[in-house]
Every structure is written in C-alpha cells, then in structure tokens.
Amino acid sequence: MQATGKVGLFGAAGAAGQIIGAALSAAGRDYRVVGRSRAPLEAAFGHDPHAEIVTWNPDDPASISAAASGLQTVIYLVGVPYDQFASHPPLMQKTLEGVTAAGVERFILIGTVYPYGRARGNPISENHPREPHTFKGKMRLEQEKLVLAAHGRASGSTSLSTLLLRLPDFYGPGIERSLINGIFEGAAHGKRAQVIGPVDVQHEFIYLPDIGPVVEKLTRTPEAYGRWWHLAGTGTITQREVARQAYALAGREPKLMVAGKTLLRVLGLFNPLMRELVEMNYLMTEPVVLDDSALTQLIGPIAKTSYKDGIRHAFDAARAAASASTDTHRDTAKTA
C-alpha cells in the first residue's frame, strides 16, 4: 500500500457515493464530490469538513477536466435512468478523456454483474466469460471495455491506471434503489411488500456500507489496477427469508405481493421502468454469485455484515423513517 492523494467521487449523491465518502472521511482523507446539482451534494456531504463540493456538466469536456483537476483518483459512480443505458458508453468516453487531460492517475469504476450474462456455474471468478445477452449488459460491457482500454493512457508526465470493482445486488439502511428495500418498508409500515419474483431462489446481496473501506483501500493499492475484481456478499439468501426476518423484527407475518416476469410484461405496457425490468429478470431465476477470493488475497480479510445484522439495520432505518413520517403528518394535522 502507498499513500495517495485526493479522491473524487463522480456521481457522488447516491448511496454508494455517500458510503465511500464516509469511509474516506473516517480515514482522515479529503475528497471531492462531483454531481450535476449542488443541492443534493450539500444535503449529503455539507456536514463533512473533508468533503469539497463541485458541480459538473458531463457533456462538456472542459467541465469534466475542471471537476477532475488536482485529483489523483476518480471513483466513477455515475448512473443513468434504467431506460437510457445506451448513454453509458459515450458518457464514459467523455469522462475518461477529461480525467486523462486533467492528469488523474487512477480511475475506479464501480460495476455490476450485467456484462457476464448467464453464469456458467456459481460462484464465478473473474475469469468467467463476459457474454451479455441483454441490451443493458452489452452497454455495461462497452463501458467496461473503455475503462480497461484506458489503462496505461498517458497525458503529459502522468499515466492513467484503471480498475473495475464488480458488485452483486445491494441493500442497506435507507437504500431506496435496492431490490429488496420494499420488504423493509413493508415490514416497518405493516403493509404488503412489493417484490420481483421468484422469491424462493437463492440470491446474492451485498450490504452496501461494507464496500466503503474496500474502495478506500483500493485507491491506495497500485498493484490492483489494470483488471477487474469481485466483491461478494456473505453467501446467498432468498427474498422470502429476508421478508421472514424483517417482518419478524416488526412482530408481524410476512406479506408479499410478487411480480413475476409475466406480470412485469403487463405492467410494462403502462410503466416504462417495469418494461425495462423484464430483460433483467433472468438474474432472479438464474442468479450470478461472485467469488471474491482473488480480492481477499490481494488486500487481506474483508469485513462483511451478516444477513441477520444487515436486515436488522435496514429494518431499523425503515422503521425510524416510518415513525418520522407519522410524526410529520401528525404535526401538519395539528397546524392545519
């Protein structure tokens, strides 16, 4: 490991950005958060004296270079709407050109299992073929290829090193974009949880707060660059078991409304997001499970939160949010 300079989180306002930012702050490191709008960045990072807030326009090369100026490492977390995945490769191309021009030395993409396509047997290591059969998987693969091809690209006296950290589906406290967040909200409110089926197939989830210390360590591990790595969860679990544990914490029996592929197709006639979920439903019936022994060998033991503890933390956050919402409504009613 070696000491490293300032880190920039591009697309920082989401859950992963906030978690990685917290890990950098805990390590006493200054970092920059970059996003299109200042308000959400202020809300998420305004309390942290280690955080510098910068806005950018990812369609403007000068804006990209300005956002990356003075950074040693860029961590790329930029998301796009689920029905606009075609924008991933051109957005990445512009970003790589901008950060290279700014003299950035290291670039980390937080990636997904989409580029693998169907698993040839679980768990899979990094040498599994990348053969996506879905449009989203193909767009993510093109994005990855750009990142890996940029490894070793020079600008002036500096050279860019790149890596990809691949994650499974994630969950955690207050993480609304998690596949299983509806279970925690349903348990907390005493309502039926809407989930995407099937719910009895083993699936891998990572407790998202666990990724922060790993990413922080990778920013100062130069030998990690030039390839992709897996970061796995703590084994697998079914959505039904997640629901059983979450609703038990609320003292209730699980109540689920399950949307399978057929229902998703029907809902997709009216809801564009549901339409987009259809092609990725194979991951629910044929899950991809990651083997991260290579990463463990590189950086040492990785602290991981058990499903039991992670589910409790996520439920507690959902219950606190539900209680706060009830209090707000009550206060509003009193003043109305």
TrEMBL record:
<dbReference type="InterPro" id="IPR001509">
    <property type="entry name" value="Epimerase_deHydtase"/>
</dbReference>
<protein>
    <recommendedName>
        <fullName>NAD-dependent epimerase/dehydratase domain-containing protein</fullName>
    </recommendedName>
</protein>
<dbReference type="Pfam" id="PF01370">
    <property type="entry name" value="Epimerase"/>
</dbReference>
<dbReference type="GO" id="GO:0004029">
    <property type="term" value="F:aldehyde dehydrogenase (NAD+) activity"/>
</dbReference>
<dbReference type="InterPro" id="IPR051783">
    <property type="entry name" value="NAD(P)-dependent_oxidoreduct"/>
</dbReference>
<dbReference type="GO" id="GO:0005737">
    <property type="term" value="C:cytoplasm"/>
</dbReference>
<feature type="domain" description="NAD-dependent epimerase/dehydratase">
    <location>
        <begin position="10"/>
        <end position="214"/>
    </location>
</feature>
<dbReference type="InterPro" id="IPR036291">
    <property type="entry name" value="NAD(P)-bd_dom_sf"/>
</dbReference>
